[in-house]
Design goal:
With about 240 residues, the protein is an alpha+beta fold. Helices cover about 30% and strands about 15% of the residues. The two termini are about 25 Å apart.
Length: about 240
């Protein structure tokens, strides 16, 4: 949900601020394209064409669980998250699957440490199957199977025939609906008596039909924290350094 570090810290808040600006830039472009093609109607949202997700989990309390000898300090986001038994799932690897035909998986970040060539060691692999290319039925090779297995895991062991055509609006809205339901279960202050059914969560932002990005009225901050989801503009770095 947020980068490594303390979510309320100035550095993490600055990253989240630029993340919000980047998302809004993309959503405004999509809204512009929809208007230009006469497709902007009341029931069309830029999230139908670009969606951001995050991963999280909540677990019910079991009898006989191990109790560590020390506990987090009171009134900390760690303590509040522990009480609610929820946590974000941090994934370091980066992966892209294109049209169920091509896959690339790597470790590098887009920063100086990864791209310098003389600092961090990085690795990446790419693969495709030329005999399984997109046709009338869609690609059905091992990359397709891998993508389906990931969706099966992240969406709570659900299989839907819509998942076979991820480019369709019906599929996109189905996935968005699943992720939204998972977010509501993850973020509720109510006690859950079952584990969270799936890990895929909608990223907690409001996206208007015009492409503007704002905060959700009920969730200006990440759960269990006092950290703004939209971030805060840095008071230390002049804008000329990052624009």
């Amino acid at each position: 949900m947020w980068p490594e570090g303390i979510p309320e810290s100035a550095s993490v808040q600055a990253i989240l601020d630029w993340q919000r600006r980047t998302m809004e830039m993309m959503y405004l472009d999509i809204a512009y394209a929809l208007r230009a093609n006469g497709q902007m109607t009341y029931d069309v949202n830029p999230r139908d064409y670009l969606t951001f997700f995050c991963l999280g989990n909540r677990e019910k309390k079991l009898g006989g669980e191990y109790v560590p000898p020390q506990s987090p300090d009171d009134d900390t986001h760690y303590k509040r998250a522990q009480n609610k038994r929820r946590f974000m799932i941090y994934v370091h690897s980066k992966m892209m699957i294109v049209d169920d035909e091509y896959i690339i998986v790597g470790s590098a970040n887009i920063n100086q440490r990864s791209m310098d060539g003389g600092r961090d060691s990085e690795i990446a692999m790419g693969a495709y199957q030329p005999h399984y290319v997109l046709g009338s039925r869609g690609a059905r090779g091992q990359i397709h199977s891998f993508r389906m297995s990931l969706w099966y895991e992240h969406m709570g062991m659900q299989l839907d025939k819509l998942f076979l055509q991820p480019q369709t609006l019906d599929c996109i809205r189905k996935v968005n609906a699943i992720a939204q339901k998972n977010w509501e279960l993850y973020a509720t202050e109510d006690t859950l008596y079952e584990d969270l059914p799936a890990h895929l969560l909608t990223y907690p932002l409001l996206v208007t039909n015009d492409g503007n990005v704002g905060e959700l009225p009920a969730f200006p901050n990440f759960p269990d924290t006092r950290a703004r989801v939209l971030g805060t503009q840095s008071q230390h770095l002049p804008a000329i350094l990052t624009t």
